[in-house]
Amino acid sequence: MGSAVAQTFQAKIYVTLRPSVLDPAGTAVRSGVRQMGYENVEQIRIGKYIEATLTAENEEEAKRELDEICDRILANPVIETYRFDLTPVSETATTAAS
């Protein structure tokens, strides 16, 4: 039996439309904001904010897994881009059976 230390990470994920993609929701919100008298607002783009907690052996592994998750599930890579901030939360000892 061996033991390994796994780390828990908190991820803050931001998904936004690519700059070349039209954003009708952002345009509608911008129109509403301007109707409220805020004429100085030039552009509004709408995106998604996601929080996730995951456990991995190290930060590189957590980043690799998050990249896969974002690319396959959370974002549509054809029209959206994503970025994430990853913060270590704690370390947990795990025991592996031989």
Entry summary:
The chain has 98 residues and is α+β, with helices and mostly antiparallel strands. The protein has 2 helices and 3 strands; from the N terminus they run βαβαβ.
Structure description:
By secondary structure, the protein is of the alpha+beta class. It has a domain at 2-21 and 50-96: Mth169, Chain: A. The chain contains two helices and three strands, in the order βαβαβ. The chain has helices at residues 24-35, 59-74, and strands at residues 2-17, 47-56, 80-96. The chain has a three-stranded antiparallel beta sheet. The longest helix is centred in the C-terminal third of the chain and has 16 residues, at 59-74. The chain is elongated. The relative contact order is 0.38.
Secondary-structure topology with pairs:
Layout: E1 2-17, H1 24-35, E2 47-56, H2 59-74, E3 80-96
Quick tags:
2 helices, 98 residues, alpha+beta, single chain, elongated, Mth169, Chain: A, three-stranded antiparallel beta sheet
* Uncertain runs: none
Structural class by sheet pairing and helices: alpha+beta
Determine the strand fraction and express it as a percent band.
Answer: 35-45%
Give the fraction of residues assigned to helices.
25-40%
Characterize the overall form. elongated
CATH homologous superfamily descriptor of the domain at 2-21 and 50-96: Phosphoribosylformylglycinamidine synthase subunit PurS
Number of helices: 2
Would you identify the CATH architecture of the domain at 2-21 and 50-96?
A: 2-Layer Sandwich
Number of strands: 3
Order of helices and strands: EHEHE
Order of the strands making up the biggest sheet? 2-1-3
- The span between the termini is 5 Å
Q: Regarding quaternary structure, how should these chains be classified?
A: single chain
The average pLDDT is 91
Write down the CATH class of the domain at 2-21 and 50-96. Answer: Alpha Beta
Main sheet summary: 3 strands, antiparallel
CATH overall fold name of the domain at 2-21 and 50-96: Mth169, Chain: A
* Structural Rg: 19 Å
